[in-house]
């Protein structure tokens, strides 16, 4: 059976894998749009062939970033909404599902920002880690409320995503102090709130986010600085309700050491985990577009949204 994947889908997958497309919401949006592209481009002659092509496209997208659960949640939304017995009915339902998903995605971040902004006070200094559009939405909403904020931004090596956060905050005229990651504990004495995003949130309230989040959370708790995670519900990981653990992506060693440096140092092992896991006891709140939750209560929301299943409908046999 011909299961050709559209070149545009392959291109999106490559951009996600190479982090040209980054940020959980942006990844989810791109993945959903790629499925719409596949549906529109398909020359399938039968419903069976069309489904096979959509499954193949979803598989290519899913394999790009195993830790970013927003991606499979986007795929899950489209496949659960895709229905029909003819190619045209399947195509139209897929395109409609993608449009609905993207509309919900647009509204979710604004709603989340309004909720998260209520935790920030006028005059607060906020410490950030990595680059999270959800976390920035909270700051933007607080600024829209007339609050004055300043920020301490961790550069977040090895890819320095903190620089993106710093640039955005300066566009909003927020005073920014950029620091190296290892200086975080020193500067916690000067901040009022730590605000991070998430790539996935497990059923027990554990937060999977950019490497370094866990250490920051432990230090914040020791210093008595409240820390919250801003995460749209597309980042909730339904698979963890059945005991599955979140796969942590290991990235290329070239991000942290070049061939010449490696040769100079000698025979060493190099590991580059992209994410770590912060236990729920170190987080004060998880803020979503559905409200804010103590980490231990997030499973209630997950059951409401996903039931008890961890199924990946795009992997169902055709």
Automatic annotation (TrEMBL):
Its EC number is 5.3.1.29. GO terms for biological process: L-methionine salvage from methylthioadenosine; pentose catabolic process. Keywords: Carbohydrate metabolism, Coiled coil, Isomerase. Residues 91-118 form a coiled coil. One of its GO terms (molecular function) is ribose 1,5-bisphosphate isomerase activity. It comes from the Archaea. Substrate binds at residues 22-25, 65, 209-210, 235. The active site is at residues 130, 199. Pfam families: IF-2B (PF01008). It catalyses: alpha-D-ribose 1,5-bisphosphate = D-ribulose 1,5-bisphosphate. Reaction proceeds via a cis-phosphoenolate intermediate. Catalyzes the isomerization of ribose 1,5-bisphosphate (R15P) to ribulose 1,5-bisphosphate (RuBP). Belongs to the eIF-2B alpha/beta/delta subunits family. R15P isomerase subfamily. This is Ribose 1,5-bisphosphate isomerase. It comes from Halorientalis persicus. The lineage of its organism: Archaea, Methanobacteriati, Methanobacteriota, Stenosarchaea group, Halobacteria.
